[in-house]
Amino acid sequence: MLVRSAWICLLILAVASLAEETASPSLKQSQNTFIQWVLSLLPQRPGASDTENATLATLTSSSLPTAEPGASSSTTTTSTQAPSSSTTTTRRATTPAPPTLNPPRKCSDCVCGIANIQKRIVGGQETEVHQYPWVAMLLYGGRFYCAATLLNDQFLLTASHCVYGFRRERISVRLLEHDRKMSHTQKIDRKVSEVITHPKYNARNYDNDIAIIKLDEPVEFNELLHPVCMPTPGRSFKGETGIVTGWGALKVGGPTSDTLQEVQVPILSQDECRKSRYGNKITDNMLCGGYDEGGKDSCQGDSGGPLHIVANGTREHQIAGVVSWGEGCAKAGYPGVYARVNRYGTWIKNLTKQACLCQQETKKIK
């Protein structure tokens, strides 16, 4: 099983010892292959600081939490605490709502989810430049490792496994990037002021693999830059076409892409996904997309990025899923697995109250 990230080795090391006791032989082999691939991307750091070494040692030796009651019928949900050496924040349900800005910022009039072209990854193709302006690149120590999605002018959505155990001050966000090897003046870089992992994120099975990133300062929306739309609550998206975007690998074990890629996959029902080779590993908080025969999928490095759907009869792109995990990439019988975003609407709304929102086109017309 591969999480869809290029720099997740810190988390892998943290859970490796326990995973060896519980994982099947095929799962162990997949994890070991993934670890080797990730380590091959890391720059040599013979002069690493004592602080970094101490952080790695703490992550490696940390133990996983015990199960909590109230888990779904198909899995055990646990609540994890961030390592003491990490600056990642885990907010719990008792956390007070964010304060109301006083005085409130003046929010500009804008529309979410409209791609920057009027036409309509593995097995995919390169996107148009800034076609999906809400897709953000996450950098760790200045190097690309995950993706995220802009929800409003101050917050982004990503996968918990992209930020859990990582040092917040080393994470940065880049917007309006397309080709990683080309320098341009349009890109927007921001530091991260806060990272909020879901309080019930389970590092064993990637249940609730969703997190919120707060920028150190808001971005300004314009004709080029605008956020994605939130998904329709309660909708299963079964049978709809999902659009996955990212800079991840174009094949298993391959290098990450220089340019933003997109691929279309059919979204499966929960029953259909559980009939795949994953079985009961699929919880109600997950969403699956892919073909029985494989061939098209997200891959390593796509973690945290969006799976979109376009609302019927509109141009509105909604974020239905967050790239989470999968067995290999584009492998027959193993669709890509995503965090199901519309299961977290209230949680996201409560944590992003102080941000400027853009209207949905369909609601603005009405």
Can you walk me through this structure?
This is Acrosin. With 366 residues, the protein is an alpha+beta fold. It folds into two domains: 2-40 and 51-61, no CATH class; 100-365, Beta Barrel (Thrombin, subunit H), CATH 2.40.10.10. The chain is built from six helices and 15 strands. It has helices at residues 9-22, 25-41, 50-61, 270-274, 345-351, 361-365, and strands at residues 2-3, 89-90, 125-126, 135-140, 143-150, 155-158, 171-175, 188-197, 211-215, 241-246, 261-266, 286-289, 306-310, 317-326, 336-340. The strands form two sheets. Strands 1, 3, 10, 11, 12, 13, 14 and 15 form an eight-stranded antiparallel β-sheet that branches. A six-stranded antiparallel β-barrel has the order 4-5-6-9-8-7. Strand 4 and strand 5 form a beta hairpin. Helix 1 (9-22) packs antiparallel against helix 2 (25-41) and helix 1 runs parallel beside helix 3 (50-61). The radius of gyration is 19 Å and the shape is globular. Mean pLDDT is 75; it is low at 6-35 and 37-96.
Q: Total helix count?
A: 6
CATH overall fold name of the largest domain? Thrombin, subunit H
The level 1 CATH classification of the largest domain is Mainly Beta
**Mind telling me the C-alpha Rg?**
19 Å
The structural class is alpha+beta
Distance between the termini: 45 Å
CATH superfamily of the largest domain: Trypsin-like serine proteases
Give the low-confidence spans: 6-35, 37-96
Any idea how many domains? Answer: 2
Nearest-integer average pLDDT:
75
Q: Share of helix among residues?
A: 10-25%
Oligomeric status of the shown chains? single chain
Principal-axis shape: globular
